[in-house]
Hints:
This protein is an alpha/beta fold. The chain has helices at 47-54, 77-82, 100-104, 122-135, 152-167, 182-197, 209-212, 238-250; strands at 9-18, 21-31, 36-40, 62-67, 70-71, 85-88, 111-114, 117-120, 170-174, 201-206, 218-223, 226-232.
Amino acid sequence: MxxxxxxxxxxxxxxxxxxxxxxxxxxxxxxxxxxxxxxxxDNGAGKSxxxxxxxxxxxxxxxxxxxxxxxxxxxxxxxxxxxxxxxxYQDLALVELMNISRNFFLGRKPTKRIGxxxxxxxxxxxxxxxQVLSEIGIQIRSPRxxxxxxxxxxxxxISIGRAMHxxxxxxxxxxxxSSLSIKEARKVLNYVTEAKRRGLxxxxxxxxxxxxxxxxxxxxxxxxxxxxxxxxxREVSPEEIAELIVGSVAA
Length: 251
């Protein structure tokens, strides 16, 4: 298969153990181009482990990983980011005592040279952060506002906005709506829709089908480190998916 026609992500026969605990057993996982995939399963199903293998946090014990048709094995998240993969974990990786623009450019701070010295380009950081967030529907009062005073939904918005801007190809969201109000969760779903419209693929990790069903194209269910199945949204209702998750946990 040519690189142009290959899925964006293909993970084949991925296995991973931590001591005597088998976290993943021969799991296949695929993400198409400009596709939103709901990665579902109860706590301990192996969802986060699978994503950490994809993004270079863990090496797999066995299996193959392809990105845009090329076999890859990232040794760090930095390598994954360099290819256009951005992940927003539950803890958001925001520094509370820093302002919004500094968090937006965390690890990627632009500089300007004055004489023989490179200085932080604060004006550029403020302008770009405010402009990019506004373009994807995230309104902030000021880019100089400290993250510590933001609500959970606002913090999630900053993290997702940053990931959408720098990701370019694949956006991974780890339980992005788990601690949000209904109103804030709806905003996150809007960001997912906007990311797809911009050409990105999205992996939406959750244990609650109702949080991802409105925006997903397809669902992959894991249970105890084993893939239960792949389901096209047109073929299943959220109730049927929920029953599969509950049934696989009870089995």
